Every structure is written in structure tokens, then in C-alpha cells.
Automatic annotation (TrEMBL):
Signal peptide per UniProt: none
Name used for this protein in its record: Deoxyuridine 5'-triphosphate nucleotidohydrolase
Any one GO molecular-function label of the UniProt entry: magnesium ion binding
UniProt lineage: Bacteria, Bacillati, Actinomycetota, Actinomycetes, Frankiales
Protein EC: 3.6.1.23
Region Disordered, residue ranges: 159-204
Species of provenance: Frankia canadensis
Gene: dut
Domain dUTPase-like: 30-156
Family: Belongs to the dUTPase family.
Length: 204
């Protein structure tokens, strides 16, 4: 779904976002599938990123969001998985009051390969969401919670020896209680992802 005629009201249950293309020859924001959360943004110019390099890339698009909404620029999973290209500040935030061109800060995280993106290639996704404007109230003490003041790593996880989230294979329910006769054996499989053949450029 692309930008619609400005005289056509938004369908019920949809939010209207005004769009101005700073480059009329480029496509407006497009949902590849009706159920997609993000609309594709395209590059307004060619850009080449060497290993570890980053660049600010225009999209040829400016928008006006209704009050109470913001738009968030997310990486495209295909670019990230296949080529290591992602966003430096993911997600980037587009405030309701911003009227300038949306620009994307891309980075090539691959350690050896250079990638070239062409004008019109899809480089990011725009997700429009309702946001709450908070009222910050200073207090002397905060209410108690289960977590409390525990910070980074306080809930365990990778590298801590924690088995949280791992299904038991000994017939127990994870608490030490036997829940079935006999012990089961689990097996895991490791997978690997690889880049596409050298010289293949991501398509628009």
C-alpha cells in the first residue's frame, strides 16, 4: 500500500500521515504486504559502504504525523542478515513536529565485504505508532518491585550459567520434581547463516 490521494479520507481504523516526496521520482512509503507493520523506505542516491563504514542516506521523503504519534525507522532484516547492513541508531525516531527529509544512518558491519546500494533500493522500514506523553513526577522513594535495583545482568542469562528458558530433559518440570517416568535425552542442532554469493547486490 503506497501513499494515497490527499482528497481520500483514511479508512476506519487507520491513521492518516501526510507525505511529501522531496524527490517525486522516488516511490513513497509502501507496505509490501497488507499485514506488514513497516512501510519500506528507499535510498535517494547511490551509496557504497566499505567494511565498518557508515553513511547518512536520504529517502526523498518527508511526513507530517498527527499529534500523539511518532514514526520509528527500523533496519530491514534482509539487508542485515545477508549483507550485515543495519542502522546505527535503531530505531531512529521521527517526531510528530519534524517536517524535514527522513534520513537513515546506515552501517556496514561486515568485516571484509564492500556493499553498494543503488538509488531506489529499499534500505529501511518506517513503523508508525501511537505514543504516550508522560508526566514525570519526582518522589522521595519509588514503589517496591520484584526486580528492585538489579541492573545489567541481574536476571541471569547468557554466560551466567543460567538454564532459564531451557526445557528440562530429565522428566522433571524444572523445579526438581519428577513429572514422568524415565529420563529423556535432548539433542540440539546448530545452524549457520552465510552471505549470498559475492557480487550479488541487494535488489530494490
Amino acid at each position: 500500500m503506497s501513499a494515497t490521494d490527499p482528497t481520500t479520507p483514511a479508512p476506519p481504523g487507520r491513521v492518516e500521515v501526510l507525505v511529501r516526496r522531496t524527490d517525486p521520482r522516488l516511490a513513497g512509503p509502501v507496505y509490501a504486504q497488507p499485514s506488514d507493520a513497516g512501510a519500506d523506505l528507499v535510498a535517494a542516491s547511490d551509496v557504497t559502504l566499505g567494511p565498518g563504514e557508515r553513511a547518512v542516506v536520504g529517502t526523498g521523503l518527508a511526513i507530517a504525523l498527527p499529534e500523539g504519534y511518532a514514526a520509528f525507522v527500523h533496519p530491514r532484516s534482509g539487508l542485515a542478515a545477508r549483507y550485515g547492513v543495519t542502522l546505527v541508531n535503531a530505531p531512529g525516531t521521527v517526531d510528530a513536529g519534524y517536517r524535514g527529509e527522513i534520513k537513515v544512518v546506515l552501517i556496514n558491519t561486515d568485516r571484509s565485504e564492500t556493499i553498494t546500494l543503488r538509488r531506489g533500493d529499499r534500505i529501511a522500514q518506517l513503523v508508525v505508532q501511537r505514543v504516550e506523553h508522560a508526566v514525570f513526577r519526582e518522589v522521595a522513594e519509588l514503589p517496591d518491585s520484584v526486580r528492585g535495583v538489579g541492573g545489567f545482568g541481574s536476571t541471569g542469562g547468557f554466560g551466567s550459567g543460567s538454564t532459564a528458558g531451557v526445557a528440562p530433559t530429565d522428566g522433571s518440570d524444572g523445579s526438581g520434581a519428577e513429572v514422568g517416568a524415565g529420563a529423556g535425552a535432548g539433542a540440539g542442532a546448530a545452524g549457520a547463516t552465510g552471505r549470498e554469493a559475492a557480487g550479488v547486490r541487494p535488489g530494490a
